[in-house]
Design goal:
204 residues; 6 helices
């Protein structure tokens, strides 16, 4: 079994990615298992840049293949915000609740037709000690609408506000299997996994 370090301390993401990797001979480890990895400053201007920064940093410290996801919600009426700043949209001490509250305030008064958005995820897999930095990159998007109020008790982040128009439910109201089948992260990972066997076989 190949051990892969997911560059996050978010246990929701660890569980989600482990479920998506079911069927592959992969064990997903979170950064809580590697206290020697300090805080990684995400200085990129795009999801891909931030994912690459995290994957390379974690791989170099742990000596294992690192898988990093950078994702967020892109709202059309806000010119793409929160975007790469989604996790800290409401400040350095942001929580899911404060981020959601700020997003609702920013869109206050806008009708559903002007509340279009999408979740975007870019996943980068980086192999350690590899010449030229062997990596895989994949992107996925999930189109939706920002709701008028949070609904649902599942998921994390902006899931309670993100409505899937086809289902008429928020991401927080979906089962894990329903979410994985439709989500931005699920789409990105399925693209990445199409090339995973050859990547993992040749990784040091």
């Amino acid at each position: 079994m190949i051990q892969v370090v997911l560059a996050t301390r978010n246990q929701g993401k660890v569980k989600e990615l482990q479920a998506l990797l079911a069927g592959y001979d992969v064990e997903v480890l979170g950064l809580d298992r590697f206290p020697q990895v300090g805080e990684i400053e995400e200085t990129g201007d795009t999801f891909e840049e931030n994912a690459r920064i995290k994957a390379q940093a974690v791989s170099s410290v742990t000596g294992l293949i690192a898988l990093a996801d950078d994702s967020g919600i892109v709202v059309d009426a806000l010119a793409g915000a929160p975007g790469v700043h989604s996790a800290r949209y409401s400040g350095e001490k942001a929580t899911d609740d404060t981020n959601n509250a700020k997003l609702l305030q920013a869109l206050d008064g806008l009708p559903p037709a002007r509340r279009t958005c999408r979740f975007v995820s870019v996943v980068v897999a980086h192999a350690p000690h590899s010449e030229g930095g062997r990596e895989l990159v994949a992107e996925g998007a999930w189109e939706g609408v920002v709701g008028l109020a949070p609904k649902g008790g599942g998921g994390f982040g902006y899931d309670p506000l993100f409505i899937d128009p086809d289902l008429g439910r928020t991401a927080a109201e979906l089962t894990r299997d329903e979410k994985n089948a439709r989500s931005h992260r699920g789409k990105a990972l399925r693209k990445l996994l199409a090339n995973w066997p050859a990547f993992a076989e040749n990784a040091p």
